[in-house]
Specification:
The structure holds 2 protein chains of 2 kinds. Chain A is α+β, with helices and mostly antiparallel strands. Chain A is 53% helix and 16% strand. In chain A, strands 1, 2, 3, 4, 5, 6, 7, 8, 9 and 10 form a 10-stranded mixed beta sheet that branches. In chain A, a hairpin with a 4-residue loop joins β6 and β7. In chain A, α2 crosses α13, α11 runs parallel beside α14 and α13 runs antiparallel to α14. In chain B, the strands form 2 sheets. A 6-stranded mixed beta sheet of chain B has the order 6-7-8-3-9-10, sandwiched between helices. Chain B has a 4-stranded antiparallel beta sheet with strand order 2-1-4-5, with helices on one face. Chain B starts with a strand and ends with a strand. Classes of the chains: A alpha+beta, B alpha/beta. The complex binds adenosine-5'-diphosphate and magnesium ion. Adenosine-5'-diphosphate (ADP) binds next to β2 and α1 of chain B.
């Protein structure tokens, strides 16, 4: 039977009378845990930000028609050559057909699929922007504005104007920030759009769009779906791309393959599109844990040393405790609980310091062209990291305390009392 | 009379630095309420015997009985409970926990035993201190009191769980004659008033003569 009250009161007395080494040992843990919390909050905040930068804007599945030569060449349709060895040179794709066949029924079908959070149609068009004597190549994307807002944080990247204003104006355009700068245009101004066929349309600038990726902002603008269809002279069922958001991103790969089969269409999933992205995140995580664990190991050695010294000093006390009826296990627990108390106090202090530093970082101004909606450094306050932090502290102090405590357990009181 | 403590053919060797037969067929007993003393030349094995009797040393052959129960061969965990409950031990060098107060030192074995509430234990500890005329020291740090006082605190601690037997290894060896006399009087009173059994190793002829029985040791043998 273990009498925790006595054990803890002895442990407490030891710690309080050795205040200086106790504080030193606890501070070691505090630094380790504080650094862990700060780093992990900042790094995962950064991960989240970068994920948002690319992944939020990338549809989980993207459906479009790839321009490629027919796999089945006309000669294969001839029964006469069925068993012959046919060689066709210089195959070219036939006249481009960007339109998704049966786009509207597909959209309807997808909207009824339970796994799908939303599916939005887009019409992409190659155009020229004309303002005065300047003529810039680029593309125009027709979108269902409010659905984009719902599914892809679209509004976060509108630096001037509102999505509603665009939605309500069939002659409105949301101009890319780079384009606006090059052509010295502002909301309210007009810009002319020329199609490849040469037709010219005047559009009113309803707002400015800034994605943070210069190569996008320099060429791309948004208009309503209908506007692109009108500019291209196409009907309402002319849709070049369908972007799909799923409830569960992990299903993107199998579902993309399934859709390719089902709709006879090209489908890319988010994993394909951003294969390299995960690497950055995992390297940042590795740095976080490497630094934190190093600090905790250093703290652990501190605790180990201090307890070893304490046990050396307290040999006589240990002998007395054992002579008066404390078992080896009691003595072991006395020293182990000292380590754990250091771990708990140092760990909680570390959590508080980590939290404080996170708040500080969170409020530090961080403004960059590339990220229009970000004003301060990103910080991720996930309670899980605080739980992991305190568990870290307890495990490392337990390991550091275990060996000295075990030594104390095995001390032979007779040898100490004899004085040899 | 009932024997509270009994040994049968206890033998012990030290194997380092070389084989040394330190206790040879030690067989004897202490009766209930008896105040016995052990005398013998330095090196005759008195301390070694006492450590075995106190259950701290288990490396021996033969049998040890406490209240007619065989103690030999029991597990360490059990032995510490027996030590806690039934055996009070007083050393030559008082051995208090220097960071604790006097009263805390006295209370510690009772807290470990955990048979009584904190306030009862505190009350008992005050009673023991009062009996030994050191109640006024209760709240002092153990490191701040004199040698004679320390030894009395150690006796109070040894008595806190009302043990079956009190053992002492030269408890007066480090005290002046006045304090030695004092300690002897305390032992005598414990025997007479409480009926405590005592087994005390001593070099002091006067001290030994006034006990009920002197056990003579020589070269690991018991002579009488
Ligand atoms: N750990 C040990 N290893 C070897 N010899 C020891 C050890 N402890 C004691 N001795 C020897 O055993 C003998 C008895 O010692 P001890 O019991 O302390 O004698 P006493 O208390 O009667 O003076 C002595 O000769 C001593 O040197
Ligand atoms: Mg001795």
């Amino acid at each position: 039977m273990i009498n925790w009250k006595v054990i803890l009161s002895i442990a407490k007395t030891h710690l309080l009378t050795k205040m200086k080494s106790t504080v030193t040992a606890a501070l070691g843990v505090t630094f380790g845990i504080g650094a862990y919390i700060t780093l992990v909050s900042f790094m995962t905040g950064l991960n989240g930000l970068l994920d948002g930068l690319v992944l939020n804007r990338t549809p989980h599945i993207h459906l479009y028609n790839e321009i490629e030569p027919s796999k089945k060449q006309p000669i294969a349709l001839f029964d006469d050559f069925e068993n012959a060895f046919n060689v066709v040179h210089s195959i070219r794709p036939k006249q481009s057909q960007k339109k998704i066949h049966n786009a509207l029924p597909i959209l309807n079908y997808l909207k009824n699929d339970e796994a799908v959070k939303g599916a939005v149609p887009q019409v992409q068009a190659q155009i020229f922007y004309i303002s005065g004597s300047i003529e810039l190549g680029g593309n125009l994307i027709g979108i269902d504005v409010m659905e984009e807002v719902r599914l892809s944080n679209f509004q976060d990247y509108i630096v001037e104007g509102t999505p509603e204003a665009l939605k309500n104006n069939d002659n409105g355009i949301l101009l890319g920030a780079g384009l606006a700068k090059k052509m010295s245009l502002e909301p309210g101004d007009r810009v002319q759009i020329s199609t490849i066929a040469g037709d010219i349309f005047p559009l009113t600038i309803m707002g400015i769009y800034q994605s943070g990726l210069a190569e996008v902002d320099n060429i791309q603008s948004y208009v309503n779906l209908k506007t692109t269809q009108r500019i291209l002279g196409e009907a309402e069922n002319y849709i070049t791309d369908i972007n799909i958001k799923l409830w569960n991103m992990d299903k993107a790969v199998p579902m993309a393959r399934e859709m390719e089969q089902q709709f006879d269409i090209k489908a890319t999933d988010i994993k394909e599109a951003n294969a390299q992205f995960e690497t950055g995140s995992s390297i940042r995580n590795m740095i976080t844990y490497a630094v934190s664990i190093t600090l905790l190991i250093v703290a652990g050695f501190g605790i180990y040393n201090i307890l070893n010294m304490l046990i050396y000093e307290k040999m006589k006390d240990i002998a007395i405790l054992k002579a008066t009826g404390f078992s080896g296990r009691d003595v072991q627990f006395i020293f182990l609980s000292q380590a754990m108390l250091i771990g708990i106090v140092g760990g909680i202090l570390g959590l508080l310091i980590g939290f404080g530093l996170s708040v500080l970082i969170d409020n530090a101004p961080f403004e960059t062209e590339a990220l229009p909606t970000i004003k301060t450094f990103p910080v991720n306050y996930n309670a899980l990291y605080y739980v992991i932090g305190i568990i870290f502290a307890l495990i490392s102090t337990f390991i550091a305390g275990y060996l000295p405590a075990n030594k104390a357990k095995k001390i032979d009181p007779v040898r100490i009392i004899r004085g040899t | 009379m009932k024997l509270v403590l009994e040994t049968k053919n206890i033998n012990k060797h030290f194997y380092k630095p070389k084989d040394f037969h330190v206790l040879k067929d030690v067989t004897f007993g202490v009766e209930e309420g008896e105040f016995a003393s052990i005398m013998g030349k330095s090196g005759s094995g008195k301390s070694t015997l006492l450590y075995i009797l106190s259950t701290m040393d288990t490396d021996y052959t033969g049998e040890l009985y406490l209240n007619n129960t065989l103690i030999t061969g029991k597990h360490h965990q059990e032995l510490s409970v027996i030590r806690n409950k039934n055996i009070g031990f007083v050393f030559q060098f008082h051995y208090l926990l220097s960071e604790f107060s006097v009263i805390e030192n006295v209370m510690l074995p009772a807290k470990k035993l955990a048979e009584k509430s904190h306030s009862e234990i505190k009350h008992d500890a005050h009673e023991k201190l009062k009996m030994l005329h050191i109640e006024h020291l209760a709240e002092q740090r153990a490191s701040r009191i004199s040698g004679g006082e320390k030894q009395r605190v150690a006796i109070a601690r040894a008595l806190i769980n009302n043990p079956t037997i009190l053992m002492g290894d030269e408890p007066t060896g480090n005290l002046d004659s006045h304090n030695s006399e004092n300690v002897f009087d305390i032992f005598k009173r414990l025997k007479e008033e409480v009926g405590l059994s005592l087994l005390v190793v001593t070099h002091d002829e006067d001290f030994a003569k006034r006990t009920d029985r002197i056990i003579e040791m020589e070269d690991g043998h018991i002579l009488s």
